[in-house]
Amino acid sequence: MTKAIMVCAALAFFLPALSADEALPEQTLETSLQDKPESGELDDLFADPDPDVVIEKTDSDHLKKYTEDNKIKFSGFFNTSLGFAFVLKDWSAPKKNSLMGGIAAKTGLTMDIRPNSDLHIRASGSIAIRPTGNEFSFKWIDPSLDELFADYFLAQKVFLRFGNYAVTWGQGRIFTATNLMADVKDGFALRVTVPTWLDGVSALAFAKKSFFTNGFEKAFLHACYAMKLDKILWDTYISFGARYQWHEGISALLSIKRTLWTVDFFVDAAGNYNHNDKKFYARTLAGFFKEWGDIKLYGEYYYDGSLHSPLVPYGGHAVGLALAYNNVGGSPVDMGLHWLHTFVDHSGVVAWGLTWPIWKYINFKAAIPVFYGDNFKFASDGIAAYIGNFVKDPVKFMVMIGLEFHASF
Amino acid sequence: MLRKALAIFFITVGICFLYGDDAQSHNQILKKIDAAITFEGQDLSAEYTITKRDPGGASSTIIATMFRRDATNQFLVLLLEPAIDKGKGYLKTGDTIWLYDPSNKAFTFTSAKERFQNSSFRNSDFNRANFSVDYAVEGSSTEQLGKFNCTVLNLSAIRDTASFSRVKLWISDDNLIRKMEDYSLSGQLLRTTAIPRYQRIGVKWVAAQMVILDHLKFKTVAGKPEYERTTITIRRPSLSALPDSVYTKEYLERVSR
After folding, report:
1. Which chain A residues are closer than 8 Å to B3 by Cβ?
2. Of A42, A55, A61, the CB nearest to B213
3. Nearest CA of chain A to the CA of B132: how many Å?
4. Are B240 and A36 an interchain contact pair (Cβ–Cβ within 8 Å)?
């Protein structure tokens, strides 16, 4: 208060000296902020709000429902689809086409057991029936065990997982060849993770049948060993992983990802050196991902140095672009557009797809892939791989429609 | 001429004197706000119900559980509803936020400034309050907000980690934020948040209900703009201690079914 009086007294003495010559410009801090009458729209909430409360019970255990409730939980799904496809094999011979149809079904069951907060056991399997080809014939796909593993948190510091499960390295959504650990799900693996070191340090040892070409003698020498380090530095995700297996040699992956202007940009650089044949090759993946509400856009460029040969002197290059639009125009319809192109033989595919939930549990699906180029050997595409199961000859154009019934519990 | 120069000098010193004193007291208010709603040395968990109403009427509800440890600037958010998002989780460690999607068992790296599940609620809204560190006070006034006598502070961001460039706070006599306006650098009003009711846990406070208007998403209805409105209700706040392992990616992967 004393300071204020002193300042006011000084102002009263000196201010007339200034005002005689010029007026100070009127300036308030409010003028820099946009005046929006709508900002007062919520003021009615303060006219007569409920009083603040005091919480007496402060020991609710919110973790319990995730760790101990439902110690054994079963879940599953049943999916069946009926589909038809019009297939054109040659643009210059439109009569060279065929009409195909088929029914497929799949059911799966998952069991999740949590005896206590440190131990978790999970098992899931499925069985399916699929059409075999152009004729209306079907075959059962052998029941598969999709996952079977146990998690254990040792002293709340070290995380252990043992069994059959998937591991994902790399950042590709369209091209996944930089996922060096894609084959882990084909065998049994032990993973040890210390989440508090750096931003996560993992070591993994796994074995699958193809590793042991000379039987199981000295099996520990022929198993695969891998390690991965994650770190966030200056808002940039950096990950380095390496794996070694006697027959395959050593493979390494460096992944970098950063968000710029609200777009995710990433690069994967992988290499493999096989000491058995003294050969080295590199693979690179670069891409972006952007999301606006219900719209997702991502694109990737992929280089595969393992294709380097006299016929493919510069290795294999491919690009992919995908656009997904969920709830088109506020409707329940989801649409997608997908383009893959390989520079090896300048072939590719453009595909449009739609999913429309027309009734409870029932979806209408449609897809139109258009293939160009002669061969389309290189790019690994879900649609091409799926089609390849049924169509022996190259395909140029397809229209696929179908109904799907999907229920889960 | 000399008198004029002396006048300018003493007025400048006087304003700095007064303003410096006011700036210090305003910063004290910000520190008191941060202290009132920050839980140093404790874990805070609660159930969040986030209801978003689009302009024009369609609404959606998200139910999630939040676990927060302010001492290490970490939080974990696990989604329970809608069913399609059940099992998804957000984990913040340091300045990094990971989003886990159980459908493809993948972690993606997201930003605190991004919207939480496409609502007006941001990932950073789960964070501990840090107004006294992230912002500087540019000006103040007093205003009556319903039944609350409020000090109004105009803040501008001084760190990149702040979600909004400029913020205007209405602070009631009990040092609680009752209303907040978030602005862009150009002065455009982006969001208005009202917190009419708090709940006290021990000596700390947690909002009981918040209402957010998103001024970037609106539709004209009957000649008036109708903004996207998000209502957040926070229930059963708890101070139960949580193990360190809760704030790890491995834990998030385990509990997401």
Report:
1. 14, 17
2. A42
3. 19
4. no
Helix (H, G, I), strand (E, B) or coil at A247: coil
pLDDT of residue A28: 33
Q: Across the interface, which of A3, A44, A166 has its CB nearest the CB of B105?
A: A166
What is the distance between the alpha carbons of residues A367 and A373, in angstroms, rounded to a whole number?
20
Smallest CA–CA distance, residue B98 to chain A, in Å, is: 11
Q: How far apart are CA A167 and CA B107, in angstroms?
A: 12
| A112, closest residue in chain B (CA to CA) | B257
- Low pLDDT (below 50) residues in chain B: none
> Which pLDDT score, from 0 to 100, does residue B20 have?
53
Q: Is the pLDDT higher at A204 or at A237?
A: A204
pLDDT in tens, A246-281: 888 999 999 998 888 778 899 999 999 998 888 888
CB contact under 8 A, B199 and A259: no
What is the ipTM metric for this complex? Answer: 0.75
Interface test with B, best of A54, A56, A63, A199 (most B CBs within 10 A): A63
Q: pLDDT category, A310, cuts 50, 70, 90?
A: low
Is the per-residue pLDDT at A339 higher than 80? yes
Check B238 against A67: CB less than 8 A apart.
no
Which of A14, A67, A330 is closest, CB to CB, to B6?
Answer: A14
- How far A259 CA lies from chain B's nearest CA (Å)? 8
Residue among A3, A18, A54 whose CB faces B21 most closely: A3
The reply to whether residue A50 touches residue B197, judged by beta carbons under 8 angstroms, is yes
> Closest Cα of chain B to A24: distance in Å?
12
